[in-house]
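Summary for the lay section of the report: proteins are chains of building blocks that fold into shapes. Here we show the chain for Internalin-like protein and then a coded description of the shape we predicted for it.
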Amino acid sequence: MGERTSQGVRRKIPAIIASIGMLLSGALLTVPFSAVPANADTQFIEQQTSSGQTRSRNNWKNEYSPEGGGNWAYTVDSAIEHRSDGGYDRIEWTDDKLVVEQYNSSFVFMNAKTISASTYTPTDATEVLWGGYFNGSNYRFVVTGQSNPNESDSVAVVRVTKYSKSWQYLGNVEYSGINTYIPFDGGSLRMTEANGELWIRTCHEMYNIKGVHHQANMTFRIRESDLAKLGQATAIQNYQQSAMGYVSHSFNQYIVAAGGKIYGADHGDANPRQITIKDITPTANDDAWRSDGQILPVMTFKGTDGDNFTGATFDGFESASNGKSLIAAGTIADQDKSFPASGSEVETGARNVWVSVVPTDGSTVTTKTLTSNAFDGNQTATDPVLVKISERRFLIMWSSYDKTDEQKQTHGNISYAFMDTAGNLTSKIYTMKGVLSDCKPIVVGNTVVWYSTGTAKNTGWTTTYHNKEAGEAIEDSKNSAPVFYTINTSTGQSSSHDSTVAYRMYFLANGGSPSKVVETKAGAKATAPTSPTRTNYTFSGWSTNEHSYVAYDFNTPVKSDTILYAYWTPQEHTIYFDANGGTTYETSRSVPYSWTTYNFPDATRPGYTFAGWYTAPTGGTKIGSTYTMGSSDVTFYAHWQANSYTVTFDANGGSTSVTSKTVTEGQPYGELPTPTRVGYTFAGWWEQAWQENHCKYHDGKKITSSTPYEIPQDSTLVADWNISTYTVSFDSVGGSSVPSQTVEYGSKVSRPKDPVRAGYAFQGWYTARSGGSKYDFGKPVTGGLTLYARWRANVYTLSFDANGGSVSPGSKSVTYGGAYGQLPTPSRKGYTFQGWYTAKNGGSKISANTVTTGNATVYAHWTANSYKVTFNANGGSVQTTSKTVTQDQPYGTLPTPARAGHYLLAAGIRRSSGGLRVTASTVFTAGAAQTLFAHWDTISFAVLFDSAGGSSVASQTVEYGSKAASPKDPVRAGYAFQGWYTARSGGSKYDFGKPVTGGLTLYARWKANVYTLSFDANGGSVSPGSKSVAYGGAYGQLPTPSRKGYTFQGWYTAKSGGSRVTAGTVMGDRDVKVYARWVSASTPVKPTTPSKPTTPVKPTTPSKPAVSTVVMFRLYNRFTGEHFYTSSLVERDSLVKVGWRSEGTGWVAPVSGKPVYRLYNPYVAGGDHHYTMSTKERDALVKAGWRAEGIGWYSGGSVRVLREYNPYARTGTHNYTTDPKEDTALVKAGWRAEGTGWYAVKAK
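The coded shape description reads as follows.
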């Protein structure tokens, strides 16, 4: 394995580093760290540190050949994935660690991380054996294990670890013992998923058997959501009997999910000695996997079982055509020339690449060879890789080289071609320089991508191959960073890409944030990151010098790791001078951040002395002679020392005990005296108008104790007076609010509008809340007054709503604010009383203690009782005999009884004879236990009458057990009706006294009438004078009359004129008289000129008689879902009249051939017909109660009539069609295809 050289971490650059010997992320910085800024200890550089890619060698892991050092496959250690940002992830097990590396879309290495070994290490393991990795739809999975030298069933030999898509550990499941000595030994491990389940196909070296640790495959099935074990196959079993397809000496294993199935594939040299595929899909009857899955052999090998060598490899396995076929690929040497050699001597011949197309329906496997290397030649092929581009297109690649090349895999020659699902190459065979590896290629758009390590360039490495079987270690010198390869699926063009390590550009924010590390490919130009930010500074650019601005040239190619420093310009802020009520000649000043300023302005204010500049309007800190600018604007506030003045009080006609006081400028007047004056109310002190130097300063204003003094000299306040008024207040004592009134002394109070109070009647205004006297609104007011409302409580009605029940009494009287008191108890059939509530549904429960607030209605709440309902089948049978139902709730699901010859009336159940019909939605209202009785209706059948050419006779509908009525005889010209028979020919005469038990067609039987043919000699004589002729029959031999002197000319239909009749004339439907025609014997007859004889016509070759056919009509009963088929027009038309829908012609059948039997099931509602050629199926159905209705038609011809079965229907369970599209549509809808029922002459 390769050597991992670094791991991603977060690093913090120290403040001062005296030398350049710091190793950051495994890379030695080449810049002097004395250049790092002094405040760098506050800067964090966020990165995934790594000096470069993990160096490894994965290009030998797919060497599944003798040249590769063995005859078995290896576990897959490496994988590649495409990210949504266009880049790639490399996932690889190397140096006993699981490493995840990120590359950008140009395959430039970005960063790496190692997955914590604690998450995937099996319990108590001292070493970890690698199994494999799988990226599922929702989770990632890693399989690891450990050896079990003591063959202990308690050792966790296999561990499956689950991760999120972001590699967060989500849990694990372990398998202990499982007949495993060493897991994953002698083969590979592959995984797939389906229906939320993870499937694992791998191998193991098993417990000791007679001194030998044999190798075989094993399989695991796990539910992904909770890691539940759904099944495992690890024991020795016969391959044919093993549900999972046990293979001894299984050299390679595959598993795929395709077309709704799971297929396991193995290459083994014993039990069996072949490459084989098995369907292991679990069915509904299987606990873990399919017990009788289909086996699909791909390739069988010559030689001895267990020899460990087969002369072949199995290197690729994919599904195609949406699961209709599977494609396998590998290499093979000429089997005839490889054997009967044994052991490694089998593997001396040159190899060729083979591809097998395996149909999943079990039809013939097609194998093709893509190369033609001579067995004894030096040119050989190995390591084929099969890539699925789409369901119908594949890419196959392999290594081509000369076996004499000592460097073996260093050849670097890859051959590849595109292929269809039949194994045919659809392109030329391309070649490229490159190396295949165990990294399975992925398809990204129209590009196939994979990588290889262990080679420095895509032309191959230059060291000698080391034999793995000999146990030689793979030296670190053979390890390398990955080389990525791509093939364009549209053009076939291939490319290789070295994964160059980028130099690091350290962008130090130099007091700002954030600092960053950007990796740039060697020789490329660096791109400046988003500018950092620093409070109070403006970013000016990136400098190569910390202390002075030396701009970095981003057009210069990067040749080494580089440190750049952010260069900052301090921002300017403003000092605002707030005179705080005064004035100043300078209102603001701009100062750069951290600069010092001085010489601040003075301020002036009338009535105040300036005390200096401060940091707050009041309080704060006094500013000295200088100030250093901070990180934001600042305001300086002027502080003032107020002056003191004398205020004189003028009582303005009244008197006051205080005549003057001292006040301070800008401060409140403080406590002011209250003067008095008879008949007046003091209205406040007013400031006199003040002016100075003949300039009016202000007009005067009302002064309170809180009014600030604002006159810069002594002043006088004058008293203001108002006539006295009084307030009359109204206390509504819980009623609506009544506004108070202001009344001058000696005036009267206005009577207000009466207040209102819920539940009370207003009684008037009183002088006290209780007691007192009723107020007289005609009395003058002499002082402040409060009047109180007086109330009397109302009486209300409490009504009781039994809510479906009954109650007495129905109401009671209650007093507002009083308790309800005793409440009545209602009753209701089928319910238990739960109490009285304020609403029919919901509401609050009330009690005797509930307080009255007004008229109210309360509602009884009930709990419905449950009762037992018994089912009486009433002559039939029923499985469920009773159930429990709730009063006034639907009955719910009702059982369906059965009774021969009957069907359940209206598909329902009735309460009793003549009662009401009950369905699942019928509401139960009995209020007690109840018995329901099944009501039956007799099944009615159609009795059809086929008049066989006679007049039409209407069909009859007859109930089971009743008798068909003998209809009026049909008529047919020339025939006498003989009666109704059970068959068109043969059969027996039908007995109309016999009860009807099924559908029936009766056929009219006829006898032709006999009529008299009379001979009128017309003047002559004839004997006999008449003869009898049957209707439709020829007249036959006619007598020759005689007449003296006349010659007989023939018989005619009239004495004169008419038509001549002969022996071949056909008898009609009545008696006939014919007349002799004469000519006088004395009248010579002119001889006619003899006609020229015609050339005899050559008889034509008789044609082959046509096959007689009959049209089969198809009808559909929309009420039962049944399709019905008949050749009888009468039966078809009769069914259409009773509601069946004609669907035209189903097919055309021969009139003879192998019979198709028709059967009828009278025990399902509406009946059901079935058709079959199998006498066994016919007899089995008859035993089960079906009624045989004879032969429906015959099978013959080349058109398949397909048969489908609906497992969910009770009637119309089968369908028959010649249309493959209808067959496919029904199967998709859930019907089960049952193959060919019989054959028809043509479809329609």
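Put simply, here is one thing we learned. The chain is about 5% helix and 40% strand.
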